[in-house]
Amino acid sequence: MVQFQVHKNDITQTRLVASGDQADAFDLGDSEILVKVERFSFTANNVTYGAIGEQIGYWQFFPPALNAGDSAEDWGIVPVWGFAEVVVSHHDAISVGERFYGYFPMANYLKMQPDRIADDRLVDGAAHRADLPAVYNNYDRLGGAVGNPTQDNLRALLNPLYGTSFCLCDALQEEDFRGAEQLVVLSASSKTAIGMAYGLAQIEGVRPAVVGLTSPGNAGFVEKVGVYDTVLGYDQLEQIENRPSLLVDMSGNRAVIGAVHGLLGDNMLWCHNVGLTHWDDSSTKDDPAAAQLIRDRSAMFFAPGHIAMRAKEWGATSFNQKVAGFLEGGMQHARVWMDVHETQGLAAFADIYARVVKGDLRAEEGIIITP
Predict the structure, then answer these.
(1) Residue 362 belongs to what domain range?
(2) Is the separation of the CB atoms in 228 and 337 below 8 Å?
């Protein structure tokens, strides 16, 4: 197996570790299967997995193969979303050639222990995953039909992000937008933000005005996406209207968040912190603006928790149907603005990984890797 590994304490450091790249290199127990990863997406969302890996348990999903003298405390595998095909099966209910969509390692292969098998989905029941968030252990069964690369690429890129977008839209409506007159979105060019704004644009009836904040260089792109009522650059913060406001932050840039909190003051009703497009915020954490953060009106929004709540309230089938409908519309919209690029091989992925971690990626760019 070839794995693309990341240093846990410095996610800019990466390496390839080879411990067999053929299916016959794996020993499978009873009822286990081996899948070959076909393709996966890589976005700023995956960078967040690495940046907060210890806090949420993201490093635990796919234990790394280690070289002599290595420590599991140092190296890990960032999870990604994509597609895989069953190449060996010791399970009576799973056939070779079947395809799955779900959570995979940046690697060629994954050994799985299918559990709670239904016609359309299953759970990886591997013991080390038992206590991790259930949403990440579920896999869609796609049958044995050959995939559609265009459709699969969009799904790999948008399904995990727009799942969060759906949850945000649902949570914001459930709380009646906390009485806000405007919703201010930081890092409005991020795909999750675009998905959320797309969903809010579909609401019939009264809703807050949606203001997208982005870097000056991305302002033109964000305007063309067409889902925000107003688009402002970070150099135009003074144009934000000082009225009751709800914030959704995808950036993690404490200086910018603090500046917006400071501008709004008592009118900053609540801030949902979602992503870390600026995961390395060491240069701005001591910025005077960061001191204006209103922490007692801010909290992380954890999509898996919202998913678990709604799946319990609505039932898993109903929840999945709602998300599927949201995703279908969002994918159609994304065809207009997303520019998808495929790269073959984990070795060739190294330079692309570095670009995404540095934030050196065009907002409309979608990255797909075929290991």
Answers:
(1) 2-147+338-370
(2) no
